[in-house]
Amino acid sequence: MKKLSYCWGQIVVRICVPVVFVLSGIVGAPALADRLHFTDGETLTGSFKGIQEGKVSWSSPILGDLVIEQFHINLIESGDHFDLKTSGQNLSNCWMYVQREKQHLHCAEGVKTLSSWKLVVAAGETLTEPLPVLAQKGEIKVAAEDSSGNNNISKYNVNARSEWRYIESRHTFALVLQEESAESQTTRNMWRGSYQYDQFFTDQWFATGNAFYEEDEFRDIDQRTSAGLGMGYQFLETTYLDLLGKGTVNYVDEQFSTGIKRTRPAFLWNLDFAWKFNDKGMEFFHRHAVLQSFKSNSDYEINSLTGLKYPINGNFSSVVQLQLDYDNLPADANIEKEDRKWSIGLDYSW
User: First and final CA of the chain: distance in angstroms?
Assistant: First the structure.
């Protein structure tokens, strides 16, 4: 297949060709041909072939077989019948039409209105092929600072995350590591590792379990461990949007450097969100965890990571992020409740 990349006001096949030339060449196309509507208002006739891995396969009578980034597609008109997999359901034997500038799907399950083609994971004549036995993705974000002279400061911040998907089960490993020093004196030293297990029993509902371990010298936490079980819901999972939430009941065991020990049951809420703005890989992300003790309403914690990734080259991106940790009931009254850190660094994703 020829690869088609879409430019504003142009359609490109290896090199950019003006839209006017393309449209003039397809004026004589059959009236019953499928029609592709781009987000900038341009259209292209031909034949819809399917969607896979965030790309639309299209056959044009002038340009031949094309591969178009799904991000640029607004509407599709096609009389041929396809199976579709969206972020929330599977639809069979669908044909697509446009009415009042809205996308409609006429399927065996009934007539559906589709708000965006970015929500479609796959489309084809049949979608009965088994899912990959094992799918894996991950990322490492690193921010560092080292200065000498009038001020001797050294800082680094590492956030690593890896997700393994095996048919209907998902394993997620995460690591947060922070260390800072000023004038050869350590001022920050913490790390937290976590594991989450999800077992899907529908396309969106899953049972979940988690465990984490943490040490934080300057918050007087010698060690903190927790484990819990609960339920989760995958709201969206497409090439461009990923949103899930999960709630678990956890048992938390804390040992502080002051000699105090504290154990308690608590409710843990996690939310993960990622939104890819375009086909280049620019992405907004947000993750947070809220831990609320069952023993006291004032005993709660919030950990969040929010940022923006901008691609540099290949798997590398620059990242600007805000990491916020808030503990409403710290180990000592002299310890600040809030830790807030802005950082600019490098992201490697695979």
Answer: 25
Are 170 and 200 in contact, with CB atoms under 8 Å apart? yes
Helix (H) or strand (E) holding 147: strand 135-147
Q: Give 135's pLDDT tier (boundaries 50, 70, 90).
A: confident
The count of other CB atoms within 10 Å of the CB of residue 150 is 5
Q: What pLDDT does residue 250 have?
A: 97
Dist CA 228 CA 268 (whole Å): 8
Q: CA dist 223 to 159, 192, 219, Å? A: 19, 10, 11
Whole-number Å distance between alpha carbons of 214 and 23? 61
Q: Does the structure show a pLDDT above 80 at 17?
A: no
Q: Encode pLDDT of 50-72 as tens digits.
A: 998 889 999 999 889 999 999 89
Reported confidence tier of residue 29, pLDDT bands at 50, 70, 90: very low
In SS3 terms, 189-221 reads as EEEEEEEEEEEECCCCEEEEEEEEEEEEHHHCE
* Burial class of residue 45, CB neighbours in 10 A (0-12, 13-18, 19+): buried
Name the residue ranges covered by the structural domains of the chain. 4-124, 135-349
| Residue 32: per-residue pLDDT | 57
Model's pTM, two decimal places?
0.73
Among the listed residues 56, 160, 161, 57, the one whose alpha carbon sits nearest the alpha carbon of residue 117: 56
CATH architecture of 135-349: Beta Barrel (2.40)
In angstroms, what CA-CA distances link 32 with 1, 77, 79, 313?
A: 24, 10, 8, 42
Q: What are phi and psi of 53, to 5 degrees?
A: 55, 45
Report helix, strand or coil for 100: coil
Q: Rounded mean pLDDT of 156-179? A: 92
Contact (CB, 8 A) for 161 and 174:
yes
